[in-house]
Amino acid sequence: MARRRQIYEGRGKVLFEGPEPGTLVIDFKDDTYVRETRKRGVITGKGVLNNRISEYLMQKLSEIGVPTHFVRRLNMREQLVHEVEIIAINIVVRNVVSGNLATRFALSEGASLPRSLVEFYLKSDDLDNPMVTEEHITAFGWAHPQEIDEMLALSLRANDFLSGLFLGIGLRLVDVTLEFGRLWESDQMRIILADEISPDNCRLWDMKTNEPMDKDRFRRDLGRVEEAYQEVARRLRILPEVGPRELKDSKPLQ
Residue 236 and residue 85: Cα distance in Å, rounded? Predict the structure, then answer.
């Protein structure tokens, strides 16, 4: 596929103009970045794996009625998606105490929550992605009340489904960060899931060992980062057949 006009480049992905009106091409990079510490690095093969993992999970969510921007995978690193108007709010659904939730409230990491906890964060690197409330979202016009209700319902449905899916392969979905957009079709607008679902925006722990199998391995200098991403793909049975220059070969985490 011929390279098209670049629309945007983030820390983990590049967006290009799509081949059809109303579409974009996402190119998944191996680059990684930790916002809290400004730590940068490269996770070999991450782009290939995240492309496949996100494709698989988006398709599964679509099958249960969660609309997504995913159209089809184009190649090992690229996928075609619907172009949406991104809503500048990240929704984090937490099932287990971890990350800044543990830090903010002096809670024990790994403790189960009595129910899934939903938090809203403004997508703003300049402001360090502050946590916000529904009142902030509606007062500043980032989303309407009915849009918040729709995003909440879709987030909880996606979290419930993904929790069960990962449980079936021996992984615990600790939390997931979701992003939504407005898809316009003629005069009709609907809210759909956008961005990606991968070890970059999910915390996944091994059920037996509580070993992190996600970006936290890079964030916390735990090592064997590439192997963790590969292991998630192996358990989902979607590990791509690629050459050594695309994906480092290694033994799975135990």
Answer: 31
